[in-house]
Amino acid sequence: MNNRRIFLSLSKQSGFEQKYIQKALDDNWITSGGPNVNDFEEVLENYLDAESYVTALNSGTSAIHLALVLLGVKTGDEVICQSLTFSASANPILYQGAIPVFVDSELETWNICPEQLEIAICDRIKKGKKPKAIIAVHLYGSPYKADEIHAIAERYEIPVIEDSAEALGSSYKGKKCGTFGAFGILSFNGNKIITTSGGGGLVSKSTQLKEKSIFYATQSKDKAVHYQHSEIGYNYRMSNICAGVGLGQMKVLDKNIDYRREINHFYKEIFKDIKEIKLFQTANKDFFSNYWLSTILVKEYENINRESLRLALENANIECRPIWKPMHLQPVFSGYPYYGGNVAEELFKKGLCLPSGSSLTKEEKERIKEVIHIFFNNYNS
Ligand SMILES: *Cc1c(COP(=O)(O)O)cnc(C)c1O
After folding, report:
1. Could you tell me the residue range of the domain that residue 364 belongs to?
2. What's the CATH number where 192 sits?
3. What CATH code is carried by the domain that includes residue 331?
4. Smaller CB count within 10 Å for the chain: N or C?
5. Is the pTM of this model over 0.70?
6. Judgement on whether residues 182 and 314 belong to the same structural domain of the protein
7. What distance in Å separates the CA atoms of residue 29 and residue 173, rounded to the nearest whole number?
C-alpha cells in the first residue's frame, strides 16, 4: 500500500487560479489592493448576502484585530471570547492591550454556551466593567446557537465579532455564517475551506465601515499630498496576487463544501457500528455545517482512547489532530477570567479531527478506513 502522508486539510485547486494570477501580472498590479482584490470582495459579498460588505485582508487574524479596533476596544477593556477555539481568535484582544474573558462551550454545537455567556456578562458588570465585545466562533464549520447568543448580546448591548474563519458556506436557519455579528471574519489560510495561500476577510454592515477598515489596513493615511497620519495604521490589506487565487477558489467553494460533507458521511458509515466513537454532526436542519473538518469523540474503553487511535493513524502516516486546546488552559492565557465548567476541556480530551481535505482521494479514504477497521478489530476481538 502507498504510504504517502495523508494531511488533515489540504486545499484543492480549481484550475482557474492561474488565469487571475496571470491577469495581475499582465496588469503589472503586483502589490496590495487592486482589481483582483475588488473583484474578490464583490464575489464574496454576493455569496454572503445583500447587506454585507467584505474587506479583503492578509489574514483572518488581522480581520479580528481590525474588528476590535473598529469597535474601539482599548487598553484595559474586557472582551469575552469562546475558550474552545484556535489562539488566533483571542490573540488580537492582547494586541489591543485588552483583557480576554473566556467562556465554556455547550455540547450541541461545541461553541460558546449561552448560559455561561450570560453568567459571565452579569458577573463582569457586577465587578464594574461591561465587556466591550463578544467573540463567538463557528468551530469546524458548525454554527453556534446564533438566536440565543445574539439575543443575549442585544439584551446587554454588546457587539458580537463572529469568527467564521472555519465556516465560510455554513449557515444557520438559511442565513450565511459571517453575516450575524456586528463584524464577521473569514480566513483564506491554506488549510481552510478555500485558500488565497494566506488571507482573510472582514465582513461589515456599511460602506463607511468597509472604507474605515481599508483605511486602517493601509496605514491610516489621511487625505493629504504628503504622508499624514492622525491614527495608528496597519499593513493588513490583501495582495492582488492572493486575491487572484481567491477568485479561482470561489469557483469551487460550493463543490468543496459538498465534498467535505460527503467525507463526513464517509466517516459516519465507518463509525456506525463502533460504539466507542461519536461522530460530531449538527443537531438539526437549522444548523448547516460545511464540515470543514470532521471530528469525533473517543470514549475511553480498555486500550481505546483518543491518543491510541491518533497514534494508530499516525503510524500509518495519516495526520489527525486533537480538538483545539481551550484558551483558558493555555499557558499564555493563564490568569485571565474563565466562566464555565469542563465541557471544552472534555471535548479537548476526547476529541479528534480526521482528514477532511478537499483533495482527499478515494484511495486515501480506503487507507483511512482500513487503519480504523484494523484498530477496532484488534481491540474488539
Ligand atoms: C484559522 C483561524 C483563524 C485565523 O485565520 P488566519 O487567516 O490563519 O489568520 C481565526 N480563528 C479560527 C477559529 C481559525 O480557525
Report:
1. 253-380
2. 3.40.640.10
3. 3.90.1150.10
4. C
5. yes
6. no
7. 40
Determine the Cα–Cα distance for residues 148 and 154; give it in Å rounded to an integer.
10
Joined together, the cell numbers standing for residue 294 give 470532521
Under DSSP, the state recorded for 20 is H
**Would residue 122 count as lying in a domain?**
yes
The cell for 103 is 467562556
309/227 same-domain check: no
Ligand 1 midpoint to CA 54 (Å): 16
pLDDT in tens, 45-74: 999 997 999 999 999 999 999 999 999 999
* Pair (292, 245) in one structural domain: no
Pocket test for ligand 1, best of 84, 85, 86 (most atoms within 8 A of CB): 86
- 311 and 163 both lie in a single domain: no
Measured torsion, CA atoms of residues 245, 162, 253, 367, in degrees rounded to the nearest 10: 100
Choosing from 250, 276, 310, the residue where a domain stops is: 250
The residue whose CB lies within 8 Å of the most ligand 1 atoms, and thus the one to mutate among 82, 163, 196, 323, is 163
Helix or strand run (H / E) with residue 159: none
User: What are the tens digits of pLDDT across the range 262-276?
Assistant: 999 999 999 999 999
